[in-house]
Write a structure and sequence with these properties.
Homodimer. Pfam families: CBS, MgtE, MgtE_N. This is Magnesium transporter MgtE. With about 450 residues, the chain is mainly alpha-helical. It has three domains: about 140 residues, Alpha Horseshoe (MgtE N-terminal fold), CATH 1.25.60.10; about 110 residues, CBS-domain (Roll); about 150 residues, SLC41 divalent cation transporters, integral membrane domain (Tetracycline Repressor, domain 2). It contains 21 helices and six strands. The strands form two sheets. A three-stranded mixed sheet has the order 1-2-3. A three-stranded mixed sheet has the order 4-5-6. Helix 11 links the parallel strand 1 and strand 2. Helix 3 runs antiparallel to helix 4, helix 13 crosses helix 14 and helix 19 runs antiparallel to helix 20.
Length: about 450
């Protein structure tokens, strides 16, 4: 089929999945699915409701079904399995890599996992159990235990012979760990260098080709390990235990999955909600509501602080009613300034550019940034408000903008580091809480400056 025909088939399949599930719809799904590309099939399975997804999944051939299944998030894989027949489930589980299998098992009830584990052969069961033995947030949970190790005293020709004999087993052979007795990691060698040595000097010892390895401990936090992986621009990274024995290898696809999940969580929480952990279109209304309602309640309660501040300074507003006109401007500026600082610092923390011990440097830097931003905005506020409402009001607005920007930038840069220090998610301390804090504090600054400049009682 042409690309346009394949696209039309995908659109028709999408419509069939969106309608009522009857015999006619199932026949249409079975007829259209073979003409749709795997990437589009994965999207359709992921974005439709579980029952419709199961119907589509069942009409796929074995290879397409496994490829589509591997492209789904683990939590959605678990939901999909509940709508499949037992033989189909066993076939899928057997086709997964140990690390992907362990990721899926983490979403299933223990009794279901026990039954699925018993259906695996001894080697697959042992490797899967090894990965499941690590905590959920440890990088060992995401590594592949299938590793092709080389020994330093092998020649390049001997090493390549082993690689060719076992090339179908490991998840990657582009970077090969080199080990000493007891599987102690001594370094790595790239497949490219090994091939070059085999061609030009086959008797070259593997030990002469070894370079220092960037490795990670199996109990290291998964996001930290993934960020380190990306910062070094690696294609694979050995995972070791406390005795520096190699226990697995981390590959790019595992790292990208971790980063995608962590970034989705940070984006959701910074905007005042919880991640859905599945596609938007396949999420029920109640699931979406649950992801948002708790944060809305928390923010509604915290916003009472702003109301209380306004109540305290109600008499000042009665004296100079014009002050009320500028409240949205000042609170909005403070919230935006704080959010900008928090987002920047949260990102810097995530990629390792800022550490907890850099707290003082961050505060000093954001204080200066806030002062410069406040100076620009304050000068603009002074000029515009002064020309329209008088220079006394202009002075109040200008000084308040300067003060609010300094305060908001400093607090915005401070909070993510404090969150990291106490073990909380820095994203939680980002936009929602900073906006509320800056609203209340900004109003206090506003009315304090107005009282001083205008001589209010």
């Amino acid at each position: 089929m042409t690309e346009m025909t394949a696209e039309a088939a995908a659109d028709a399949l999408d419509r069939a999945l969106s309608g009522r599930m009857d015999s006619e719809s199932v026949d249409a799904i079975a007829r259209l699915a073979p003409h749709v590309e795997r990437q589009e099939l994965t999207r359709l399975v992921h974005t439709t409701m579980p029952l419709q997804s199961a119907v589509l999944f069942r009409v796929l051939d074995k290879d397409d079904a496994l490829a589509v299944f591997e492209g789904l998030p683990p939590n959605y894989q678990a939901e999909l399995l509940q709508n499949l027949r037992e033989p189909e489930v066993a076939q899928i589980i057997e086709g997964l890599d140990p690390d992907d299998r362990a990721d899926l098992f983490g979403e299933l009830p223990a009794r279901v996992v026990s039954g699925l584990m018993s259906g695996l052969d001894a080697n697959e069961r042992e490797m899967t159990a090894a990965v499941l033995g690590y905590p959920r947030e440890a990088i060992g949970r995401y590594m592949s235990p299938e590793v092709l190790n080389l020994h330093a005293d092998w020649t390049a020709a001997e090493a390549m012979e082993v690689v060719r004999a076992r090339i179908d087993g490991p998840e990657t052979v582009y970077l090969l760990p080199v080990v000493a007795a007891g599987r102690i990691l001594t370094g790595v060698v790239s497949l490219r260098n090994l091939l070059e040595a085999e061609t030009s000097a086959p008797d070259t010892a593997v030990g002469d080709l070894v370079r220092e390895a960037f490795s990670v401990h199996a109990l290291t936090d998964r996001e930290r390990a993934a960020r380190e992986f990306l910062s070094h621009r690696l294609i694979a990274m050995p995972v070791v235990d406390e005795e520096e024995r190699i226990v697995g290898i981390l590959t790019m696809d595992d790292v990208l999955d971790i980063i995608d999940e962590e970034d989705a969580e940070d984006v959701a929480r910074s905007s005042g909600s919880e991640p859905l952990n599945r596609s938007y279109l396949s999420s029920s209304i109640l699931r979406i509501v649950r992801s948002r309602i708790v944060w809305l309640l928390v923010l509604a309660v915290s916003a009472i602080l702003t109301v209380q501040v306004l109540e305290v300074y109600e008499d000042r507003l009665d004296q100079v009613v014009i002050l009320a006109l500028f409240i949205p401007l000042l609170t909005g500026t403070g919230g935006n300034t704080g959010n900008q600082a928090a987002t920047t610092v949260t990102r810097a923390l995530a990629v390792g550019e800022v550490r907890i011990r850099d707290l003082g440097r961050v505060i000093w830097r954001e204080l200066r940034v806030g002062a410069l931003l406040g100076s620009v905005l304050g000068a603009l506020g002074l000029t515009v408000a002064g020309l329209v409402y008088g220079w006394a009001i202009g002075a109040v607005i200008g000084l308040t903008l300067l003060s609010v920007c300094i305060m908001a930038a400093t607090v915005g840069g401070l909070m993510p580091i404090i969150a990291k220090r106490i073990g909380a998610d820095p994203a939680v301390f980002s936009n929602p809480f900073i906006s509320t804090f800056c609203d209340a504090t900004g109003l206090i600054l506003y009315f304090t400056i107005a009282t001083m400049v205008l001589g209010l009682q």
